[in-house]
Amino acid sequence: MELKKNFARMIPLLLQGSKPAAKGGLELLSLTGKLCRGPMKITIDYLLRIWGVEMPDYEADVSAIIDRFHANLAELEKNPLNNARTHALLDKVRKGFMFYEMMYNAPTRFIPNLLSRKADKNFRLIRQIKAEYKKAIETKNAATGK
Known about the structure:
The protein has 5 helices and no strands. By secondary structure, it is mainly α.
């Protein structure tokens, strides 16, 4: 389980590097980060499982990750700062996450390289969404003088 702990420490480090919005919208930006973590956690847990690491709560953990992902996505979709671009990106993220649900339920194993590419693509999409939200927040703050 040391490997899982190392992966858990790696996730926040991967998400570093983006400056949070100076004013307002932190909850919104936090939700985009949570949306990013779901596929990463599923990928990590899946790889650990196929490498033979004992994971007694695997089914419950992945099911909870999937539920949280959909809840966070639904909340982001209702956000008033959304525009045509963020809606299109959120739709791509939703469609891309279907791969993880299929992988979780599949009786066969997936190639680790494919998992890595899917996680990277998801990460890039969510970073684009985050950038759009930051731009919208800054525009809103500038208009209201905050």
